[in-house]
Amino acid sequence: MSAMDWLSRLFEMMPVRGRLDLRCSYGAPWRIDQGPGEASEIPYHAVVGGSALLDDPAGGKPLRLETGDILLLPGNPRHVMHDGSGARAKRAQNHQQVNLIVSENAGRGERLDLLCGHFAIAPPHDRLLRGYLPPRLVVHSAIGSGRAETAAQLAGLVSLMRSESMDDHLGGRAMLNALSTAMFALALRLASEAENAPRGILALAGHPRLAPAVAALFNEPARPWSLPDLARLCNMSRATLARQFQEKLGRSASDLLLDVRMTLAATELRKSSLSTGAVAEAVGYQSEAAFQRAFKGHMGLTPAQWRRMQELPGQGIFSSLATPSEANRPRADVGG
To answer: Residue 289 CB: number of other CB atoms within 10 A?
Structure first.
């Protein structure tokens, strides 16, 4: 297994596909009431012009989103965004273009330009991502929010998405979806570089001293890693490493290793040429029986049951990444 950074390895183990569903162009007053989407989806909104308020489901102060902000919702909740005026929203009309749906209203106030889409991660891989990302993540592509280079890259990518969404260019949908996928990786990179990276894998990987341990677990999950081994990689004591993992990640290093191993195993089991024993060895189990127990305890299915499920029509690992059900696509429910 060749060396690779943790984020690239994550995307290799669990293919992610982005999709731009809707472009909103609203003048105040406006309101968007959306979600939840499909279980294996992470919705996103990219503010390319204007501003928006995101309601706090707990009743707290709304979160203000400015131009350049990207909102990711790994928790996939119902969420409400609005202009903050409190006025009755102008009804929106949706127009189907060749490559996406454009939603517009007749509002005259400050205009919102918003790209709405989702990232699809087939189960059970979505569990690893949801378990290590915050339920709500806002990434600021404005310079100063992280490393300037990454922020500029992300801002440029979103600008290209906006340009592609303006007209029905040849290959536009393919471009928009590919750019959405790239945006996910860039957004996670920028979030991990921020000084206040949220608790989870982003805070862990963004910590310079802990990064070697994260890379080791993702790149060599078959090795029998011990806490002292990882501590030596990070030049810190065993106790300090354990505490840092708990503080930054909210889980132990062994928890992360198990999740990585089971995610990799689920992917490898799709390959009919590999026996269960070979998969067990590839992810660090000398005993096939021990692997069987670990896999069933983690996934709720035996390796054989999981493999058969992938072979059934419509049940494969990529089935939920194909054309999504129209009934569950994100839409702007704007009051009238």
So the answer is: 9
Q: Find the farthest-apart pair of alpha carbons in the chain and give their distance in angstroms, rounded.
A: 67
**What's the gap between Cα 295 and its chain centre?**
24
Exposed/middle/buried for residue 128 (C-beta within 10 Å: 0-12, 13-18, 19+):
buried
Domain range for residue 71?
6-197
Please name the residue that has the structure tokens 């891989």: 125
Q: Does residue 146 surpass a pLDDT of 70? A: no
Identity at 74, one-letter amino acid code: P
Average pLDDT value over all residues in the chain: 85
3 state SS of 294: helix
Q: Which residues lie across from 52 on neighbouring strands?
A: 65
Does 118 map to a domain?
yes
**Separation of alpha carbons 246 and 202, rounded Å:** 13
Both 43 and 88 in one domain: the answer is: yes
Contact by Cβ (8 Å): 54, 215: no
d(CA 42, CA 255): 23
* Tokens, residue 232: 């030596």
Strands 101-105 and 92-96: antiparallel
Which CATH number covers residue 50? 2.60.120.10
Pull the structure tokens for residue 308: 């058969």
Q: Write out pLDDT tens, residues 225-259.
A: 999 999 999 999 999 999 999 999 999 999 999 99
CATH of the domain at 248: 1.10.10.60
Structure letter (DSSP) for residue 264: H
**Residue 15: partners with Cβ closer than 8 Å, 6 or more residues away:** 121, 122, 125, 317, 318, 321
Domain count, the chain: 2
